[in-house]
Automatic annotation (TrEMBL):
<feature type="compositionally biased region" description="Pro residues">
    <location>
        <begin position="94"/>
        <end position="105"/>
    </location>
</feature>
<comment type="similarity">
    <text>Belongs to the ABI family.</text>
</comment>
<feature type="domain" description="Abl-interactor homeo-domain homologous">
    <location>
        <begin position="19"/>
        <end position="85"/>
    </location>
</feature>
<dbReference type="GO" id="GO:0030027">
    <property type="term" value="C:lamellipodium"/>
</dbReference>
<dbReference type="GO" id="GO:0035591">
    <property type="term" value="F:signaling adaptor activity"/>
</dbReference>
<keyword id="KW-0963">Cytoplasm</keyword>
<dbReference type="InterPro" id="IPR028457">
    <property type="entry name" value="ABI"/>
</dbReference>
<dbReference type="GO" id="GO:0098858">
    <property type="term" value="C:actin-based cell projection"/>
</dbReference>
<keyword id="KW-0175">Coiled coil</keyword>
<protein>
    <recommendedName>
        <fullName>Abl-interactor homeo-domain homologous domain-containing protein</fullName>
    </recommendedName>
</protein>
<dbReference type="GO" id="GO:0031209">
    <property type="term" value="C:SCAR complex"/>
</dbReference>
<dbReference type="InterPro" id="IPR012849">
    <property type="entry name" value="Abl-interactor_HHR_dom"/>
</dbReference>
<dbReference type="Pfam" id="PF07815">
    <property type="entry name" value="Abi_HHR"/>
</dbReference>
<dbReference type="GO" id="GO:0017124">
    <property type="term" value="F:SH3 domain binding"/>
</dbReference>
<feature type="region of interest" description="Disordered">
    <location>
        <begin position="84"/>
        <end position="132"/>
    </location>
</feature>
<dbReference type="GO" id="GO:0001764">
    <property type="term" value="P:neuron migration"/>
</dbReference>
<keyword id="KW-0597">Phosphoprotein</keyword>
Amino acid sequence: MLDIQASQLRRMESSINHISQTVDIHKEKVARREIGILTTNKNTSRTHKIIAPANLERPVRYIRKPIDYTILDDIGHGVKVSTQNMKMGGLPRTTPPTQKPPSPPMSGKGTIGRHSPYRTLEPVRPPVVPND
């Protein structure tokens, strides 16, 4: 008996939902029709938008000029090379750096500890709902 009533209730709910969707579609059609009444046709002209100039300018003939890279010598943080070293065969000889690159701090047996800067972060706790 309860199963029959539950199935009837589901059918009624389905038909009500269908009617509701039909009404919503009708309302949207009416609203779009009202918006369409307020619109006007776009006036399109058939004339050309781009007009050619009356007098044509003669293009300037291209002349190749060699590129002078010496104007870039004083820009930036590059290595200064004197012309004397260039005659001797390339870049000036410099001594290798005597300072070692920084290494991570050693603690304990060489493992990554809790206070090491290279440790993995602890997971964030999920939010807790207050009991108030």
